Amino acid sequence: MSEVLNISNLSKIYQKGTIEIPALRDINCEVDKGSYLSIVGKSGSGKSTLLNLIGGLDKPTSGTIQFNEQELGSMTRYQLALHRRFAVGMIFQSFNLIPNRTALENIILPLVFAGIPKRQRKQRATELLDQVGLSERINHLPSELSGGEAQRVAIARAMANEPEMILADEPTGNLDSGTSAEIIDLLVSLNKEKGLTILMVTHDKETAEAVSDSIITLKDGRIV
Amino acid sequence: MNLQEMTIMGFSNLWRTRLRSSLTIIGVVIGIGALTSMVSFGTGLQKNVTDAFRENDLFTSMNVTPKKFNVEEMMGGDVSGLAEMLEGDPEPLTDSILFAIRAMDHVEIAFPEETFAGKLKLNGKEISRSIQPFPAAMRRYSPYNELLAGEFYSSDTSHTVVIRWEALKDLGLIMDYPDLDYTLSKEDSIRGVRIITADSVIGKEIILVTASLNDDFPRNPLSILMKRDFEPFQEQERAYTICGVVNRSGEFSFDRFRGGLMIPEITAREIPRLNFSSIWDILGDSKDEGTYASIYVRVDEMEELTEVRKQIEAMGVGVFAIADQLQEIKRGFLIMDSLLGAIGTIALIIAALGIINTMLMSILERTREIGIMKAVGGSENEIKFIFFIEAACIGFVGAIFGLMLGWVVTRIANQVMNTVILPADQEYLDLFYFPLWLIFGAVAFSIVISLAAGLYPAIRAARIDPVRALRHD
Questions:
Q1: What angle do helix axes B18-55 and B380-416 make, rounded to 10 degrees?
Q2: Cβ–Cβ contact B470 with A under 8 A
Q3: Which of A52, A125, A168, B410 could pair with B432 in a Cys bridge, judged by C-beta atoms 3.0 to 4.6 Å apart?
Q4: Domains (ranges, CATH) in chain A?
C-alpha cells in the first residue's frame, strides 16, 4: 500500500501569554492509503490537535506533515482551504451541522465551495444521503434528527467532494452504544468498500482495536 | 463559489435574521431617503433655473447698454454706490452701433429693446401695461415660436399684436389650456372674470391708449408756470388685432419681465408716446433722438457669445449677458447640493454604523458556522465575500426602498409647497428633480457605504480561527 500521510518530528506548542503549553511533541508516523488508523488517548493528550493539524485547520510549530508528498506547513491559507475542500473530510463529536440548513443543504455546502453546478450538487447530495440511509430526512433540519442521524449527515458531508481521507474526531462521543456501533460500521464500510483512509480519534480503545488496522496511543502529546 | 451563489447565500443569511436585517435596512432607507430628497431639491432648483435659461435663450442672448457695468460689484449685492458701478462715460447706443452689431458674424438678430407705457382696452376693461416693440423675426424663437393661441406676427409693419396670458387675465379673460388648473373665485365672479377658449381671443380688436406731450409744450419751466389751463399731455387711441397669445410665464422665466403687449417694430414707431425717464429728460431735452436705452443681441451658437461680446465691448459700450453668470450660479448650486448632500450623508453614515453593528452581531452568532464553512473547505476570501455580499444586499435593498421613500416625501413636499406656499394662480412647479445620475448614484453610494461598513466585519469573519470557532457555543 502506498503512503498517503507522513508525519515527521511534529510539535505543536500553544502560547498563552508568556507560558508555553506543548500539545504535541515530536510525533512521527506514517499512514497508508486505504488503512484505518485510530488515535487513542485520554482527554488533553493531543488527539484532536493532531487531527486538526492533519486537516489543515491549524499549523504545526515545528516538524512536517506530508499529505500525498505535499507539505502542509508550507501551504498558504488558501491552499489549506483547498486541502480541506478536496483532500480530507472531517467529522466531529458534536456533528457541527449548520442548524438552520436542512440535511441536504448541509451536504451541499462543500459542493458549493467546490464550484459544482447546482443540479449536479443536488443530485450528489441526494445520493450521499441515500448511501448513509437518510433519503427520507432530506429536508429535515439538524434539530429534527437524532444524534446518529446527524452524524450520518456529517459523514455524508465529509464524503461530498470524494476525499482521500476521513478525519473523525470522536465520532461516537455523543452517541449511545447502539448508535455508536452503527456509525463505526458505516465508517468501516466506507473504508472497506470505497477504500477511504480513515483516521479516527477516540478514547474507546476497545472499539479502536476491533476496527483499526493500526492504533497510535498519545499521552501528554507524545506517542507511547 | 461564484458571485450569483454568494449573492443567494447573502440574501438567505439576511432572511434568516429577518427582523434585525429589516431594522438595519430601515436605517439605510431613511439615510438614502434623506440624501436623495435633499439632493433632488438642489437639482430641482438647478433644473428650473437652467431650463429657464435655455427656454429664454439666455445662453445665446445679451443686452448692450450705453455704459459698462461692474457686474461683480452688482452681484455682490451692494447697490449703495450704483453710480460708481457704471464705469466711464456713457457711449450712446445709436443706429450706427445697432447696424454694426447686426453686421457682425454669428449675430442672428439685434434690435433696440425699449418699452413704453400704455393702456389696453378689451372686454370692457382697461389696464395699464408696458408695451414692447418687437421685431417679427423673434417669432422663430422660444417662447414666441409656440404660442398658446394664434401665431406671432410675421411682418414688422402689420397692425397685429401679441398679448401675454397675464395681461389677458388682468383684462378679465382667463385663457384655458390643457394644464390650466384654475377655479374662478368669488372675487373673480364679482369682477366679471371668465374663462375663455384658446382661440376665441384671436382676431379680436384691442385698443392701445398712449400719452404724449402736447405739441405746444414749452421747454422753459417759467413758461409752464405762466400758462393757464395748460394740459401737458394728450391721449391717442389706436386699434390693433390680436394675432397671438404668449403662454403663461413660469416662476423662473425671464420672459415675464418683458412687456404685456408686443407690437411690430415699425408699426410701433408711428405711435406717439412719452419717451422719458425723468422730468429733466423733458426739460433738458437730454435724450437724443435715435439713441436707445438697450439693444438685445442674439447669436447663433452658445459658444459664439463670448467672441461677439468682446467685439461689441470694443465699441466702448457695456454688455450684460446672464450666461456669464452661469458659472457663478452653477458654483452656488454645487455648494448648495454639497451642503444638502452632506446632511443626507450624515444620515447614511449613522445607518452604516447600524450595518457594522448588525454584521458584528451576526459574526458573533455565526462563529461556529464560519468554523464549519472553513472546515468543509471555504477559503478566507469566500467567507469575506459572503459577508461583503450581505452588506451590499443591505445597501442595495436600502437604496431601492430609500429612493421610493425619497420620491414619496418629495412628492408630498412638492404638493404642500405648491398648494400652501406658492400663490394659488401660480403654475404648478416641480421643485424636486430625480435625474438618472441621482438614482443610480444613490444606489451605488449606498452599496459603497454598506461595503465600507461591512469591510471590518468581513475581514474579522474571514480571520476567525476555525479550531476555536468549531468549539464556540
A1: 50
A2: yes
A3: B410
A4: 3-223 (3.40.50.300)
